[in-house]
Amino acid sequence: MKSSSNTKTVIEAAAYLQRLTSETNYMKLIKLLYFADRYHLRHYCFLFTEDDYRAMKLGPVGSQTKDILTLNDFYIYNLSEEEQQTIKDSVSLVGQYKIKVKSDSTRNLSKSAIEALDFSVSNFGEFDTFLLSDITHDYPEWHRYAKDFAARTVNSIEIHPEDMFDNPATDAPYIAKYLKGLDPFKDDTVFLKSMKQIYLYGDIA
Q1: Is 117 contained in some domain?
Q2: Structural domain contains residue 2
């Protein structure tokens, strides 16, 4: 059986987001989790969900996160019995594109993960899923594939997490339109360079 160490983390994070926002649309929850993971990587040098990210037409998606929150039968079948039961007990469909995630626990969420989730809600929680999709298209980890998606030569392609340390172009259109040109992720470039170095090589040269 396949083992996914991030199952409980994803479920607890999604439930935490629901408690903060009352959001049931799993597409929006997936995007809010991406924003939280992006923040966490840039500040703590790892993705707290331990997920594998892919660029898709509507933006970056955590592969396991999507499979868990959409109740992908094939993915769940290949998990351990314990993880299958965890998902069955915690995630339920309550309408088209809508889910309810039941978990009052934050045992698998570190203080830094909570910080990242709070950041995501504070900066992106007010937007609907399609506006969030637009905003994600400005970030380098997705934007590097913009021409491929425009040409319809790809449906899904692996994201390089190190790209998440980079900032969007100064004229990024959706950040300008929806965020008044103020990227919530903006940090000191020297700090980001150091974090990227640690992520890639484990130390600062």
Answers
A1: yes
A2: no
Cα–Cα distance list, 186 to 39, 42, 84, 110 (Å)? 10, 10, 38, 23
| Phi-psi sector, 195: left (phi>0), alpha (psi -120 to 50), beta | alpha
The whole-angstrom separation of Cα 89 and Cα 160 is 33
| Count of alpha carbons within 13 angstroms of residue 74, beta-carbon side | 1
Q: How many domains, the chain?
A: 1
In tens, the pLDDT along 40-51 reads 999 999 999 999
Longest C-alpha distance within the chain, in Å?
51
Give the pTM: 0.95
Question: Residue 94 phi/psi, 5° resolution?
Answer: -125, 10
Instruction: Quick: pLDDT tens for 151-162.
Output: 999 999 999 999
Nearest Cα residue to 14 out of 4, 1, 24: 24
By residue range, what is the domain housing residue 179?
Answer: 7-201
Whether the Cβ atoms of residue 11 and residue 24 lie closer than 8 Å to each other: no
